[in-house]
Every structure is written in structure tokens, then in C-alpha cells.
Amino acid sequence: MPTLPVTGERAARSLVAELLLQRRESAVPAAVRGTAATGPQIVAASLLAAAAGTDVDAGRVVVELDIDPDDLDRAAEHRVLRYHVHCTTAQVEDAVGLRLHSPVTVFVTAEEPSTAEESAGTLAEAAQVLADAGYSPGLVAGQPVDAVADFLGVLAHTSVGFFGRARDGAEVLSLLAGTVAALCGDDVRAALATPDPKSLAALAPEAAEAVRGVLLGIEVEDLEEAEQVLSDAGLL
Q: Its domain of life (predicted)?
């Protein structure tokens, strides 16, 4: 069974470096008193388009694509790090047909209410289709443990990585622990349910790098709360 080497503090910090993303409600950059875990901000493409013709410079951003991408040619000045796209399971094939100039993450939701078993299959299958096409899957918050475990099982064997969404810092820790378990061949469901902060903090730098090659970032609702949880866990 594969294992990830362990060491100390420097790796703990690299594990969460620029991990956390937060949405902003304006094209104007938001002032954030961040930590090493603070990553780029997410801004809707429609907000950038609405600021067209102004002197606003939105900076380096993750763009949530909620309008025709061609409309961004006339938007406020910005530099795209990555696009986030939303679709239903029936629209996955359309999503992989997008041709954009920056990396794309696709968040897939079921078209209709489904059982936990159906949800697990849907997420994992969509993740495989997206990964095969060179797109990073997105994982929305609040999914059943089985669905997340199957999703991570797919991503551990691809080179595209994924972005997650978390409602709070506890879910951030859960995604970190689940990703480590998926890479090690450990019990992913157990890691998701009861993450071990000490094990995460003990990862070696090369192990932290491997984890972040899979878990590219996590969007959080409350940046300060999530960073406090990471700090309390010894990861900041």
C-alpha cells in the first residue's frame, strides 16, 4: 500500500498555501487580511462585463463563467487564472466542448433529486469524463461521503486535479484528509468522516506537493473561519 512521507511545519504550510478561495461581489478587488492559505478571489464574468468602460482593474482572478465567454473581450481589465463553469449531468458533454485560453474547472450537479448511490455514481462518472477531456472537475459542498469518496478515487489517478467547495473549515479539513487517503490507498470514507489534523501537519514537503497536485483549491464561504480552523489544526 503506498504511503506519503512525513516531516513537519514547512510541509504543513505548503499543504495549505493559497488553498482557500473566496468569492467577491464586485469587479473591484476586495481588501482581505489573509494568511498563507489565502488564494485568489473568484469573480463572476457578468460583474467584469458590467464594469466594461471603467478604469477598474480586477487583477488576477478565477472567473466564474455565467455569461458568453466572448463577452469578456469587452469586460473590465482582468487576468484569468482559471475559469469555473457550472453544468448539470446532461450538459457535461457541452462543457467539455468549451475552448478557452485558461484552465477550466467544471462543477456538475444532478439534474433531478437522486439517491445517495445515484449521486455517487453521477459525480464519479462526470469526473472521469471531465478528466479524460483535460478539465478539472469541481466538487460542490455537502455531498454524501460515499459520493465524495468515489469522486476522490477517480481524481487520485488523473493529472488534472480538482477544486472543491466547503461550507466551513471542518469541510476543508475533511477534503484535505480524504485526498491524502485517496493517494495512499487508505480508507477514504473514514478520513472524510474523521480527519486527523496531526497526520496532515506531519506530511513531508513532497507529500504535501502531491496532495496539492490533486486538490488545487477550495472555495469557502467564510475565509477567516476556515483559516482559523487550519491554524488550530497546526497547518498555519
A: Bacteria
